[in-house]
């Protein structure tokens, strides 16, 4: 696949690196912040809300896995929609996914800043400056890393994500010995219907596996490794979430956990975790884990947002300069820098809570379109080689569509109004760029059929 005006992408990410991009994005600050808030809504049944969300997200993850194996191109959901829908529909998909990743970046950057300062407070250290300065510094640092080397950013993501998984593993290991299953009786203290708003609140914690598909062309053997990475990242994340939530409820109790709110996991850790050398109390270890979680999630969305902008630039739906890899660094430098500018502005001026809800809504809408894109591609190109195929087709993508629609209904009307406004703004940008000649009607590159996978006998011959 040629890249006019730039070099080929650097194929430098392994299956482990790709998997860690997804896990790093999903196991962010959400598990630390949302557990207590979910228990406040649905009591001990919050554990079931997390489990059901894991099932809901798996339907769409399977669709991503098949599409990634059939359409091995950077851009993730945007690339798939561009293949099977008209240019305006593809632009809407790319425009909303790009926005979602950039806004998520600002959320993670601010989350990093608050957790970093809190980590200092635990040791009696008051760090100078405002949180926003630390957030900006985190964005600038990770943007520089991503601009210079995809391999370095990928390896860094892997290392940081493994550290935070290890910290949560320590929390679970100590917690399972202290958890009391009696804390789950009664289970539905707030009624079965309380599951739906709890699922709506926590669904954002299961977004991130789609970022793996945005770096397809930079992963070794992508038509095999991208589907594997997507499914592995979802599996690991769901297991970690369920274990952490079980321990938190089983040790602190639903009422105390709900009262703890955003500090629920740290307060639970104080009750059963011993002091550790150098780090100190269990709460300090959890705060340390939260710092790693937010920084790895930020790095993942810096990677993902730039690749969506790159894919749109390459297919002439944003200025073509964005769709080129830098001749020296082998990274989509222009796309990284443009995405970073928007992220930095969002850190300073955007009302985070409102736009966070907007990002969740756009994710749900994007997942609906991706599931439908799978169905449409099956109908239009039934003979296309698919190294991975969704099981129980077409039931799986249909369930993915239905579940995402249901969760979208629990998004408040004001967020829907903002979403429509952002889409209209995107339409204006599209028309303006079209009239200026900055974008054109070129279609997506031809799908490259995967090369046959050689067996050991064939290799020996």
TrEMBL record:
Pfam families recorded: AA_permease_2
The keyword Transmembrane helix appears for this protein: yes
**Keyword terms:** Cell membrane, Membrane, Transmembrane, Transmembrane helix
Q: Which GO terms describe its molecular function?
A: transmembrane transporter activity
The regions listed as transmembrane in this protein's record are: 20-39, 46-65, 132-149, 161-179, 191-209, 229-249, 283-310, 331-352, 358-378, 390-410, 416-433
Keyword RNA-binding, does the record have it? no
What GO CC terms are in its UniProt record?
plasma membrane
**Residues covered by region (Disordered):** 441-461
Location of this chain's protein in the cell = Cell membrane
Membrane-related topology note: Multi-pass membrane protein
Identify the main location. Answer: membrane
Q: Protein name, please? A: Amino acid permease
């Amino acid at each position: 696949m040629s890249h006019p005006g730039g070099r080929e992408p650097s194929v430098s990410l392994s299956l482990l690196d790709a998997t860690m991009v997804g896990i790093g994005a999903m196991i962010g600050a959400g598990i630390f912040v949302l557990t207590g808030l979910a228990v406040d809504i649905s009591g001990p049944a919050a554990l079931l809300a997390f489990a059901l969300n894991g099932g809901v997200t798996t339907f769409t993850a399977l669709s991503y896995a098949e599409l990634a194996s059939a359409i091995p191109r950077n851009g993730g959901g945007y690339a798939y929609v561009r293949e099977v829908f008209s240019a305006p529909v593809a632009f809407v998909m790319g425009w909303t996914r790009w926005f979602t990743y950039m806004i998520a970046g600002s959320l993670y950057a601010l989350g990093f800043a608050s957790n970093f300062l809190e980590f200092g407070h635990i040791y009696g250290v008051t760090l100078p400056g405002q949180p926003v300065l630390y957030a900006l510094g985190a964005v600038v640092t990770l943007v520089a890393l991503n601009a210079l080397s995809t391999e370095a950013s990928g390896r860094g993501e892997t290392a940081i994500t493994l550290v935070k998984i290890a910290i949560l593993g320590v929390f679970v290991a100590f917690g399972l010995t202290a958890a009391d299953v009696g804390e789950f009786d009664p289970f539905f203290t707030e009624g079965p219907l309380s599951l739906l708003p709890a699922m709506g609140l926590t669904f954002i914690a299961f977004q991130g596996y789609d970022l793996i598909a945005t770096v397809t062309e930079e992963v070794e053997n992508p038509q095999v490794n991208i589907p594997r990475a997507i499914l592995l990242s979802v599996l690991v994340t769901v297991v970690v979430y369920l274990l952490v939530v079980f321990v938190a409820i089983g040790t602190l109790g639903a009422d105390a956990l709900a009262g703890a709110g955003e500090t629920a996991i740290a307060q639970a850790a104080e009750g059963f975790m011993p002091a550790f050398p150098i780090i100190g109390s269990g709460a300090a270890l959890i705060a340390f884990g939260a710092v790693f979680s937010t920084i790895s999630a930020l790095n993942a969305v810096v990677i993902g947002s730039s690749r969506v902008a790159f894919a749109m630039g390459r297919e002439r739906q944003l200025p073509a300069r964005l769709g080129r890899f830098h001749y020296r660094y082998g990274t989509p430098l222009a796309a990284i820098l443009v995405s970073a500018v928007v992220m930095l502005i969002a850190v300073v001026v955007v009302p985070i809570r409102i736009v966070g809800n907007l990002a969740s809504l756009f994710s749900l809408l994007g997942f609906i379109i991706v599931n439908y894109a799978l169905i449409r591609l099956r109908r239009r190109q039934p003979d296309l080689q698919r190294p991975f195929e969704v099981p129980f087709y077409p039931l799986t993508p249909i369930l993915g569509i239905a579940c995402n629609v249901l969760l979208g209904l629990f998004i408040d009307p004001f967020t829907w109004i903002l979403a429509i406004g952002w889409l209209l703004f995107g339409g204006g940008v599209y028309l303006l760029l079209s009239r200026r000649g900055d974008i054109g009607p070129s279609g997506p590159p031809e799908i490259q059929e995967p090369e046959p996978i050689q067996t050991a006998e064939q290799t020996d011959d």
